[in-house]
Q: What sequence folds into this?
């Protein structure tokens, strides 16, 4: 048997940065610490933080003195203002690439363009981008463009975890409708790198294990792409592995979403090897 981790897998720069900021905050804070929404889309990480007293809240706390960490997906400007008004000490862990998308949306609005965001309405990152350009619309397919005012120039911004192919498809559809389109390329390279590496590995193995939260859009996309080439299992942690999935002699690939820390990948790999009787050791390297 062999166990191989995709060349690009696991936590991206923005997630690693957010986790490091939380650790520093826990060490230095003199009062309560909370995150505004789940810090990242990884239930295992969120549960671990909760055990350390860092709970996710839906709105800025009323009591002043709480250190409030803004999630990596970002928030609407008015939410940040409300936190400051309530006396919260704010640590902004918004991913810099998400901030870039927020700025791009504002710039398009100020330039007089209708802002269209390629991304899933309701996703916290998308909602934060939309809030930076009142009147902006979120779309995922050309069929969603009916709500865009005919003939106006459009500023196109992408959710950082979207694919370049989808962004270009929306841009072409807008041009076909007669819009002048200015595209802001706000997709994070980490998403494309993880997708390409997962597909490359899925083509060479018998089964893939994709690790990450089911509420993580980019992790779910990895699972979908891998499933096009081999049997694929999406798990949030090692406890979800089923011994019936694995047989001696299988070649198994592993990848993980951008919200999955390295330690979580290593735990799952060790558990797979243990199920195969390899004692938690094997010819694999943890992701870089």
A:
């Amino acid at each position: 048997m062999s166990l191989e981790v995709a060349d690009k897998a696991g936590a991206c720069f923005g997630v690693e940065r957010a986790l490091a900021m939380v650790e520093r905050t826990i060490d230095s804070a003199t009062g309560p610490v909370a995150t505004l929404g789940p810090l990242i889309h990884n239930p295992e990480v969120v549960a671990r933080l909760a055990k350390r007293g860092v709970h996710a809240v839906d709105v800025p706390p009323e009591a002043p003195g709480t250190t409030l960490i803004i999630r990596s997906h970002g928030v609407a400007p008015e939410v940040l203002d409300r936190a400051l008004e309530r006396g919260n000490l704010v640590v902004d862990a918004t991913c810099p690439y998400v901030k870039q998308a927020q700025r791009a949306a504002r710039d398009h609005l100020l330039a007089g363009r209708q802002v269209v965001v390629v991304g899933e309405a309701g996703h916290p990152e998308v909602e934060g981008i939309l809030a930076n350009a009142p009147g902006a619309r979120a779309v995922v397919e050309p069929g969603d463009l009916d709500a865009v005012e005919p003939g106006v120039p459009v500023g196109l911004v992408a959710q950082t975890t979207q694919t370049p192919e989808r962004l270009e498809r929306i841009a072409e559809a807008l041009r076909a409708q007669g819009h002048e389109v200015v595209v802001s390329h706000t997709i994070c390279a980490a998403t494309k790198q993880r997708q390409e590496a997962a597909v490359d590995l899925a083509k060479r193995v018998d089964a893939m294990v994709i690790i990450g939260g089911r509420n993580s859009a980019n992790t779910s996309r990895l699972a979908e792409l891998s499933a096009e080439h081999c049997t694929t299992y999406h798990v949030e942690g090692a406890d979800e592995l089923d011994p019936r999935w694995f047989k001696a002699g299988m070649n198994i690939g592993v990848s993980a979403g951008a919200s999955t820390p390295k330690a979580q990948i290593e735990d799952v790999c060790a558990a797979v090897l243990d199920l195969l009787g390899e004692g938690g050791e094997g010819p694999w390297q943890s992701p870089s």
The first strand starts at residue 2 and ends at 5. The chain has three domains: 2-11+190-275, 13-94, 97-187.
